[in-house]
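ENTRY TYPE: paired fold submission
RECORD: A
CONTENT: sequence, then structure tokens
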Amino acid sequence: MTRVALLWHMHQPFYQDLVTGEHMLPWVRLHALKDYYGMIALLREFPDVRLTFNLVPSLLVQLQAFADDRARDRYLDLSLKPADALDDADVDFMLENFFHAQRHRMIDVYPRYAELLGKRGPLETAADRRRAAAAYSRDDLRDLQVLHKLAWIDPFYLEGDARVRALVSKARAFTEDDKQALRAVELELLRRVVPEYAAAAARGQVELSTSPFFHPILPLLCDTDIYLRTHPEARRPRRPFVHPEDAAEQLARATAHHQRLFGSAPTGVWPSEGSVSDAMVPLVAAAGFGWMATDEQILGRTLGVTFTRDGNGRVEQADRLYQPYRISAGGASVSCLFRDHVLSDLIGFAYASWSAEAAAEDFAARLADAGRAYRAQGGRGDPVITIVVDGENAWEHFEGGGRPFLRALYRRLSSHPEVRTVTMAEACAAPGGELATIFPGSWIDANFYIWIGHADDQRAWSQLGDARDALERAGSAPDAAAAREEVLIAEGSDWFWWYGDDHSSAHDLEFDDLFRRHLRNAYRLLGQPVPDDLYLRNISTRPAPVAQTDPSGFVTPTVDGEDTSYFEWLGAGAFLVRETAGAMHRAEAAPAHIQAVRFGFDPERLYVRVDTQGAAVDLLAGGLDVALTFLAPDGLRFVVRASEGRLAASFWTRDGSGWVPADARGSVAAAATSLEVALPWTALGVAAGEAAAFVVTVLRGGVEVERQPGDRPLEVTAPDAAFTARHWSA
């Protein structure tokens, strides 16, 4: 029997400013509405499924504050404020922040929400903001207050709660009473989260594990110079940060909080970001934990093995990976499981574009196949396959908030003849291997580069070290305990996650400010001068935002796949693909096939040019299809593929069973430079003055492997008779 240990990791950083009491970002509350309750409540439908939820204390303490109606954030306050009382600053904030949701799955499913977003337009200048604010009536703003929250409501409530169903059916023209009704649902959902986890643990279906309290990188707290093990020539903070006692306190506080909340101490810990080292092993053992987990690359570096996969994705060293280990270091030992990062990433990054049933079937088949590979390679006993996945950030990209996929997956795991789900503690009870050391690193590339490798990271570590020294000097000052709390919060991994150029979000500046704010608070509590650099941004590199440039004039390019002349695409709109990432990070980045998309038109046709990584003809010959998938008009796709050495292109429409061929025609050509397409407006069913919206997708065997843009469609309006006059310039 193949045992599968699946862990869902639930985590948010500590957003509260302890001085003002305000929670600076709303993600604890919003993810509680959409994910935290439903993820655990769903298991009542599948009593034979056993798994583990990892609940980070910094998330839980904020969740309880919101459930008790003790916590506030500006987003919440503005969602409840009477629409007639909103001032200019309120409106500016709402238009900037009340559309932070996945476009296709969370905004476009509510036509009124999409309509309100369409009114906004760009907000790049003060004039843009004035124009946008003037476009919204008080009724518009009230609808935005409701829809901003309704988009985050749990699928259980969307499907079965009469109050929520009434709001969904109403769709628009909401009242102040509607806002209060939604607030009652919000509080109810928030208050059901922790009791539902406790109930699942009490009936023995799930194991609840934890992480260090404020989610710090434990090896870096023990000694930041551990980073030099993988990057010996790297720049460093002004001096090493060496505080293993802080690492021990973060673990001890996590255990104590978990016991207070759930009535028993956790037996396992997911070290923040899967970060491990020999120095943290005795700290984990001393805190009473029996198991921890990290990534397969750490095991590979420890054993001196590179885990490789065959053409079917099977691990060729399955006998080494699919077992628990006992790690002994620093006079202590702890069990450890190592996640299969390829299988884990399929859930986090690939299956959102699949049908629920196909994704679940594929995953279950891969698990069974991995177990067979383990036995074929002479593995001892039953294999243990460890899957560790972010339990909240992926679902906004799935149909139905991920519930159709999870139901399909749990059904297969419950009934599969070769697979049995187990908790992490149960998985560690099996015999396994012995390790006398563990390679220092995280689940990302088996190193700590994300959190200390950038100049911005190192500046922040220096600031943290200075504040920690100030705390030492203060001794038992009256507010030293409160100042220590601020420093422990600033030790969290999340502030460092957003520094540098590998991750970026709409809230980079807020994360930077929160980090420095916690340190400023610590100095003030100690009665010491605040260093000047804590008032200055740490961010020195910030990727340009992903955005489209709109067409400015007619184009009529030759559809030949070649960059025929500079002028043929002059006046076209453009979208440039940039490497930006959000709250999730995949261990193995999928290849980016698309580099840029250019699009323009003349009165008869829409033209699209797709610039690819490598020759477009080679991409198509390699078995990949390129499609323009339209969201407006919805249910239309133009697919280009190679067939018998020639290009074949066709329109498809979506019906209840999937995609079926359509009669419309378009022109296409691909060459070394790019893929070029010409589509008649009549074939699209788009009249002059009407909008088309599309994304470019790359497909393999009908399965989407890349989408650009990833979070919004490219939008273009078919030109009317006045287009040339509006865009004329000398």
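RECORD: B
CONTENT: sequence, then structure tokens
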Amino acid sequence: MGWGENFTGQTGNGEFTQTGCYCVPTPTSVSGLTDATQISGGCCSTLVLHANGAVTAWGRGRAGQLGNGTTEDSNIPVQVIGLNNVVAVAAGYEHNLALQADGSVLAWGDNYSGGLGVDDSGPETCGLSSVCSKVPIPVPGVSNAVAIAASYYFSFALLADGTVMAWGADNTGQLGRGTGSPPPCECIDHAVPVPGVSGAMAISGGESHGLALLGDGTVRVWGSNQFGQVGDGTAIAPVPGPGCVCVGPTAPGGLPGPVSAASAGNHHNLALLGDGNPQAWGGNRFGQLGDGTTSPMTGCGCVPSPGAISGLSGVTSLAGGEYHSMALLGDGTVRAWGRNIHSEVGDGTQTERNAPVPVGGLSGVSDIVAGEATSFALIGPSHTLTVELAGAGAGVVGGPEGIICPAADCAARFPDSQVEILRAEAALGNGFAGFTGPCAGTGPCQVRMDADKTVTATFGPPKGTAITRANIKQGKKAKKRARRKPKPKATATFGFSTPGLVSDYQCMLVRPKAKRKKARKRKPRFAPCSSPKRYKKLRKGRYTFRVQARNALGTEAQPAVRKFRIRH
């Protein structure tokens, strides 16, 4: 369902609304979509990822951003050429990105300021002042990516090692170097690391700033601070001349707890705390912070420190647009606030809202997206993804959409068939053994949410082996006048398991001491075994069974122990 500005058909309802408010005032179905798993809204075009890995687009196409080989606008979804193995999409101002299952990134649309990650000698021209590509092309120098973000002529890719790559416009320090590139370049047309950012789990971009959520539940913001986007209590006005007044990656002050998700609007930011309460800071001239106020046009027109959003709790997702914001609640309903000149708030009016109001006609929502002046809701089932930590070591697991474990939240709900990508980072002095569950290995974990699923991440050697079953069968008792003692027929069978990743097990049975004086003493040792482990022909006496797990990082420090007795 889409609503808001529709001058170039960006709501996808089959019409170009070019009179009145140029908008669709209430949620309306996007034409012909039944299997959407992810939405991304840009300035004037929109992307949808389908369950089969294909991508469709609609809205403005003048820079080739629809990816269908033309520069025509479309008010209905059209197929993006050559995409069939995509796991995430990101819509920017007039360029778009797609993340493929193999971790590579493709880009198409306007290459102004190097937003496609290539120089101007590569793509074609689209009748604009800059060059473009009408179909997706690879972004050089980016591999093993787990998340993407596209904004105003610049782009980000989060890699599996927690670093952030950036390319494109840098006139306000959007690429995180703390200084803007002087004219006439004002850009970097190839991917470079954002300095000072490591351990990132999610990324987002505003009009002139970038944002990263780290694995410890803290946030870093960089770029322009004209509207208090950095959140450190200050705002810096731009000055004339070359370069810019901007800052490198900085932690906002005063966030009251670990953050599980974050979203950048044009000049403001939203953060979701682990307890479901939202925070906002930055530009507030249209009430987009949702705190019940509208900042005056004088000064920065902003609130430069994080603060609560009025009347919201139990939030599961946040989305920041140009001058409006949205929240998805746990009951599947949506709230929106901020500028409403194009009905982007979705309450059927054009009245500015400085506090959240319900978006009418929506229920059963599983995801939300805010474009520049448009809004979208994905309707349909969702499933819970849970992360569990195992092993004797320590570390953190996170993803781009609301899971930071253990810093903030170890579970979140996601739309049906959406692919979630988790990355793991071991604590200092520890190692990551690997994922188990619906994915395996030490690389990024890609989980398609077609049911409730649990992923376990193991840090360090195994820990917590439990003996789940012990079946002790006694032998026959000898008769008083029997000439010979019966042969031992007692048996013991044990089942066992360990949370997380295990390569194999070792078992040891400590037997009773032999009564014969000259009996050879054998020191019990661990030997490879598997569950269930059975011991036969056990004689009378007291026994101790021990089992320990192993993985690539070592052997369990404390084995599981079960003592038992064979009576005859």
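NOTES ON RECORD B: The chain has three domains: 30-338+350-358, 383-459, 466-566. The mean pLDDT is 93.
STATUS: closed
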